[in-house]
Design brief:
The protein is an alpha+beta fold. It folds into 4 domains: 202 residues, Glutaredoxin; 330 residues, Glycosyltransferase, CATH 1.50.10; 75 residues, no CATH class; 70 residues, no CATH class. 48% of the residues lie in helices and 12% in strands. The chain is built from 26 helices and 24 strands.
């Protein structure tokens, strides 16, 4: 750490002396979101016009001579001896759009970029490997990160300066000064690049921890004591703002509270789930969650809707319903799935990536949240005599006010409280609110919809498969089962290769880009979930095939960890190891959990030992920042407490498995077959004309039983 700090200090002192430019975190910037373009987009066309990424295509008519990431751009920088300007974002990113309007559509800024730099646009969702490297560099330089991510590099790709959002004046000033420094004293920048490169390469270095693993519930309690100091006991989630929902964090806490009978933590999770569902971060009219809120009460979101958030939240609310039977959670699941099927579903069975935060107003101005927000006058006009009760329910008052006479719907009272106030039943209240929503949907659907990012990503679809599977377990809804299976079959047909390789992206009827570890790990997790609801062993066999491919192309035998990129991918500044859990769990933590499950399914000790080694490598990080490693803690919980293998064999196996799946028992897996099977946990257990359930712990099994109720009694 001392070495890393020296690098940062040197960079800040030397570069900042020449470049006095403010760096901003995405969520802290508040320029005018209604600013318009300074020129007509149709006047220019650059190399991005040939790309399929919606984000890149958004910039195809900028006056900037953008090029996509690739050998052509990298070679051009070397041939012309120009620094590269690498700008990274994604289609739904509000502040990316703001910077485009202010700087990238400005001819003065574009002229400077075209003359002095080779400018490269990157869709971070297509190329998370590139994003990871340069995000690490910017965080080293500035202490923060976000999108848009803007980095200046030497012609060889080594970074020398970067930040997130910049105003037009800041941007031009910075680029002018960097260019001057590059021309006047290139050796200084080369020296800085050398130091920063060393720092970037050191960030994700994981060494093999050869101490004896010690995974137990007492240690986990210590971690939770540290973590709980960050709990927001008023609105749930973490204290402060902005507030990200962090579904995996809450999911782990739900499991932990159940297995340790910690009612206080369970209450906190339930508080968080309620306040998130009550907030403006949840689309109260159309269902589905935005990415995060800028305030502490989940009220005002950045309005982009991402598949990965919603997929994970479906899993979370489904499991919470299984435990509590809270109807609010069921409504959230059904409405969110309704949104996903309505707005993000491809006819092929795959699911698109996102809806934009911005949409056009009636005046044809691109504005954040325009599709979702309401004025009081609009609501009165649509709802008429219904407005009074509706406005009380959704706070068309000071509590729900946003800006410029606009309201973002938010609840702060339970249904029973409102019903009592108006002397009606909860059922009557729910019917009333549903009728209001139906009227508002009709009006809202006449507005210009947010832009759609219609690329289909393996990793996010893997999360979606699990979301559908978990919702089917909770509600036994045939449509959820059908969606999960079709999504899995889509991946097998279009993105899974014969040798176990996965392609990352599907667009224009074809798959492309070699998959990253996050693709493999999320798809394996989804396929395991598919087996639990279908009992079709092909999903387990696909999972093993993909896992073995991951070992062959991503595994570091020395450290027992997996690289983010395959050994078949292009070499970047560093080959990162993704291990810190974030809004999406790290690819290594998902992989470690997969190996734990597969070790049971296939009686594979090597898988289990790898998972344990991975957890042991990361566990020293847990003391100070346990909430950054929730999916690792999920694995530790599995290894610290009894874990049950539930094998269901016979002609009624699917019925019995479905009955068991309806119960919240996070410390178990389901494996089953309607016929004879050679899988280790099922072998020699089929009896013609009968169905038996075996409950086992570490291969030690109780006598078989015939009912799900009897089996559940064995699972503590």
């Amino acid at each position: 750490m001392h070495r890393k700090n020296n690098i940062v200090l040197t960079l800040k002192r030397t570069i900042a002396s020449s470049l006095f430019v403010a760096h901003f975190v995405l969520t802290s910037c508040q320029p005018n979101s209604q600013s318009t373009s300074s020129m007509s987009n149709v006047d220019f066309t650059n190399d991005l016009i040939h790309e399929s990424s919606p984000y890149l295509l958004q910039h195809a008519h900028n006056p900037v001579n953008w090029m996509p990431w690739g050998e052509k751009a990298l070679q051009k920088a070397k041939d012309e001896n120009k620094p590269m300007l690498i700008s990274i974002g994604y289609s739904a990113c509000h502040w990316c759009h703001v910077m485009e309007r202010e700087s990238f559509e400005d001819t003065i800024a574009a002229k400077l970029m075209n003359e002095k730099y080779i400018s490269i646009k990157v869709d971070r969702e297509e190329r998370p490997d590139v994003d990871n490297v340069y995000m690490n560099a910017v965080q080293l330089m500035t202490g923060s990160g976000g999108w848009p991510l803007n980095v200046v590099t030497l012609p060889d790709g080594r970074p020398i300066w970067g930040g997130t959002y910049f105003t037009k004046d800041q941007w031009i000033n910075a680029l002018e000064q960097i260019s001057k420094l590059y021309n006047d004293d290139p050796e200084r920048l080369i020296s800085y690049a050398d130091q920063l490169e060393e720092g970037v390469k050191s960030l994700d270095v994981i060494n093999l921890n050869e101490t004896t693993p010690d995974f137990n519930l007492n240690i986990m309690q210590d971690y939770l004591n540290t973590w709980s100091t960050k709990f927001d006991m008023d609105y749930g989630g973490s204290k402060g703002m902005p507030k990200f929902m962090m579904p995996n964090n809450l999911h782990f806490l739900l499991k932990y509270s159940y297995q340790t009978e910690n009612k206080e933590i369970q209450k906190f999770v339930e508080l968080s789930l309620e306040k998130m569902a009550f907030g403006g971060v949840y689309d109260q009219v159309g269902g589905g969650f935005s990415r995060y809120s800028i305030d502490d009460k989940w009220h005002i979101p950045h309005f982009e809707k991402m598949l990965y958030d919603n997929a994970q939240l479906i899993s979370l609310y489904s499991d919470a319903y299984k435990l509590t039977k809270n109807s609010l959670y069921k409504n959230v699941v059904y409405e969110t799935i309704g949104f996903i099927n309505s707005e993000l579903k491809d006819s092929s069975g795959g699911y698109y990536s996102s809806l934009d935060a911005d949409s056009k107003t009636d005046e044809n101005v691109l504005e954040e949240g325009a599709f979702y927000v309401w004025t009081k006058e609009e609501l009165i006009k649509v709802l008429k005599e219904k407005f009074t009760l509706f406005s009380d329910y959704y706070n068309i008052n000071e509590f729900g006010y946003w800006e410029a006479n606009k309201y973002v719907l938010i609840r702060n009272q339970k249904g029973v409280e409102i019903a009592s106030k108006y002397n009606i039943s909860e059922d009557e209240l729910n019917q009333f609110i549903q009728s209001c929503k139906s009227e508002l949907i009709k009006v809202r659907n006449k507005r210009i919809k947010p832009r759609l990012d219609d690329k289909i990503l393996s990793s996010w679809n893997g999360l979606m498969i699990k979301g559908f599977a978990d919702s089917y377990k909770a509600f036994n809804e045939p449509d959820f089962l059908d969606a999960a299976v079709k999504n899995g079959e889509f991946i097998v047909k279009n993105l899974l290769q014969k040798d176990g390789q996965l392609l990352r992206n599907y667009k224009n009827n074809k798959g492309y880009i070699n998959g990253y570890l996050e693709d493999y790990s999320a798809v394996i997790s989804g396929f395991i979930a598919l087996h639990e609801i279908t009992l079709d062993d092909k999903w387990l066999k696909y999972s093993k095939k993909i896992t073995d491919y991951v070992y062959n192309h991503f595994y570091n035998e020395k450290t027992k960890m997996f690289y983010f990129t395959s050994d078949l991918d292009e070499k970047l500044l560093s080959r990162t190891v993704n291990f810190r859990d974030n809004v999406i769990p790290s690819s290594n933590s998902i992989m470690a959990n997969n190996l734990f499950f597969l070790s049971h399914y296939f009686d594979n000790e090597y898988y289990l030992e790898t998972a344990k080694s991975m957890l042991n490598n990361i566990s020293p990080e847990f003391d100070l920042y346990p909430d950054g490693f929730s999916n690792w803690l999920d694995l530790m919980l599995k290894l610290s407490d009894s874990f049950y293998e539930v094998a269901v064999v016979g002609e009624d196996a699917l019925i019995k498995a479905t009955e068991i799946n309806k119960n919240f028992k996070p410390n178990k897996l389901i494996i089953g077959s309607l016929i004879e099977s050679d899988l280790p946990l099922l072998e020699n257990r089929y009896v013609d004309g009968d169905t038996f359930i075996y409950v086992c712990v570490k291969k030690a099994c109780r006598l078989p039983v015939k009912t799900s109720e009897e089996a559940l009694e064995f699972i503590n």
